[in-house]
Amino acid sequence: MVETGFSASGECVGCGAPQVSPAVCEACGEIFEIPQDPFALFGLVRSWSVDSSALEERYSALSRAFREKSAARGELRDRLSEATAAVDAARRRLSDPVERAQYLLISYGGVEREKPLRKREFQSEVMEFEQTAAKARQEGDSARLAGVVLEAEEKLGSAIMAAGQSFTRLERSLVEEVSGAADALAEARFWRRKVDEMREFLGR
Ligand SMILES: [Zn+2]
After folding, report:
1. How far does the centroid of ligand 1 lie from the alpha carbon of residue 20, in Å?
2. What are φ and ψ of residue 17, in 5° steps?
């Protein structure tokens, strides 16, 4: 049970075994409602830095339960194919940095843009790139074309890295600010008790 990383959250409606996965009962194959949140589906903390070995481990555990337990129950057939597809999609979503970034962006209340706001800079970069690419294509210069692909790959890589840095800073400051708020709340409660005590004393 614990090896999958899930903690029991109630009992399976099918067999009464502790429900260790939010998606499927590993004991009887019962399929539960698949969480929309791909992190929750695999019992992972919502974060840019996904533990890929934990993800793969949990994905295998779910797949095994579907394959070995759910598939043996004919009445689950329709839900099984749906659930398998949802789990596959969730895994892709977490493994692909662009998909993961999109999910995190939206979950933090952001909206995806077609183009970056730093328009002019981006546009001149794009224009320059398109010119080089068009020229290389026209001339059939394969070495140059390979260079163009490499350049695009580098741009992709640095854009992903920039997204990761933003999310990491955001997560770090979120942790710090939540901790700051928890400290402030503890203080506020202490002083409220003092105020109440003193007021009561004065009122007497
Ligand atoms: Zn069960």
Report:
1. 10
2. -70, 155
Longest pairwise C-alpha distance within the chain = 95
8 A C-beta contact, residue 87 and residue 23: yes
198 alpha carbon – ligand 1 mean position (Å): 56
Ligand 1 centroid from CA 14, angstroms? 5
* Mean pLDDT score, 73-85: 94
Q: Report DSSP state, residue 32.
A: -
Q: How far is the CA of 51 from the centre of ligand 1 (A)?
A: 27
**CA 60/CA 52 separation, integer angstroms:** 12
Q: How far is the CA of 1 from the centre of ligand 1 (A)?
A: 13
Q: Give the pLDDT score at 181.
A: 98
pLDDT > 70: percent of the chain: 95
Q: Please, is 22 exposed, middle or buried when counting C-beta atoms within 10 Å of its C-beta (0-12, 13-18, 19+)?
A: middle
Read off the pTM: 0.82
Q: What is the pLDDT of residues 52-73, one digit of tens each?
A: 999 999 999 999 999 999 999 9
